[in-house]
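Final report, closing paragraph on structural work. Over the funding period we assembled a curated collection of sequence-structure pairs, and we close with a single example.
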Amino acid sequence: MFRKFRVQNFMCLKDVTVELEPLTIFAGPNSSGKSALFKALTCLARLFSYPVSGGRTGDFNVEFGTTLDDVVWKGDSSFPIGFQVWLWDNKSDEPDYTLVLRRDYTGWKVEKEKFLYQGNWLDTSAQAFEFPTSAGPKVWSGPYNAPLAYLTYRYRLDSKAAPFIQPIQDLRMQLGQARRYRPSASDIASFVRPPRPPTTGRRVKEPEVDEAGRGLAVALRDLLTADRQTFSQLEEKLCQLHGHIKAMSFKSDWRGVGIYYNTVRAEEGLPAGLESDGVLLTTFLLWRLYTAPQNFKLCLEEPESGVHLWAMRDRYQLLGQFAMQNNNAHTLQILVATHSRDFLNAVRSRTDIKRQVRVVEFAADTGTAVHPLTHWKQVDSLLDEFKDEMGDLWWSERLKGKW
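Its predicted structure, as stored:
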C-alpha cells in the first residue's frame, strides 16, 4: 500500500506529490488531472511486466495505442518521466522506490531505479547490477530497456541467481498492481465469449475484464466454479444492497456468456440488460472488491454513477469497509475520482473528509496541483458551497479566503 506517490512530467502532472489513505477521494473539475493520477499509477504497475522499448509487440503502451511519447509533459520527449513511491510503513522522507524514464535516439529507457537491496541503496544510474547465474556472472549496466523486476524475472528459478533476484521480486509484490475502471452498465450487461482453449499445451488465458466492465459475465461464472464461497459472499452482499435481487445466474448461447438476475419481480431469471444500471454497477464493484489481488490499487472513476441519493452513503461505506478491513496490513487501496457533492455529503464524518479528500485543480503553466484539506473550516466550506447547487469543485476560487 502506498503512503505517498510522486509523479513528474506525466500528462498534465508536471510535478505532483500526493499523500494517500486506504481510501482517498479526489474531487475536482473535468480535465483537472484526476484521471491522469490514476493512469500514472497503472502505468507504473504495468512497467514491471513489460519492456519500455524493444518488446516483442513493440514499445511500451500506457494503454492500448498510447505510448510514452503521447503522455510525456506537453508532448516534449526531452523531459524525463519520473515516479517515486513511499510504502505505508515508511515514515521517512526517502522513497522506497524511484523510477526515471528518459528518451534517447533509440527510444525510451530506464535511466534510473533506486531502492533498498540487501540492506544498501541500489542506484542503477550510478552502478551496475551484478549477480551470479548457473551460466556464469551476469552484469547489467544502465540505461536498461525495462525495470530490474522485469529483467530478472526469468532468472527466478536459477538456483544461483534466486537469492539475488528474490529481494527485487519481493519489492515488485509490495508495489503491487493497479487498475483504473470507469464501468459502463451496457458493457457489464453484454454477453461475452469466453477465451478459446489453446490448440497447444499452453494454459487457457484467464478472462479479462476491461476498464468499462466488459467481460464480467465470464469472470463471475469462473469465480462461481473456482471459489464458490467468495461468489456466495458477493451475491449475498448484492442482495443486501438491492433488496429485490434474490440470486445471480449465468446462461450461455450463441452470443456467449451472460449474467441473469433472479428477482422478486419475475419467476424466471432476467438478463442483465433488463436490470437497472445501479444493480449492474454494484455487481461490477463487488466483483472487483471481493477478488482484488494482494497489494492492489483500485482506481475508480465516479463511484456515484447509477446510485440513488439515498443509497450514496451505502456506496461510500462499502468502499471504506474494504479499504479498512485489514487495519494496518492493507492489501487493497482504493482511490476514487468524483464530481459529486452528494458523494462527499455521504462522508458524514468531518474527520474522514479532512483525512480522505484531495481537491484537484489545473493551471496551464504549472500543471495539476493536488491539495489536502488542512483546516476544519475548509471542510465546511467545501460542503456548504455545494449544498444547494450542482457544480464542479474548485479549490482556489471556492475555498480561497473562506477562513
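The longest strand covers residues 107-117. The mean pLDDT is 88. We thank the funder for supporting this effort.
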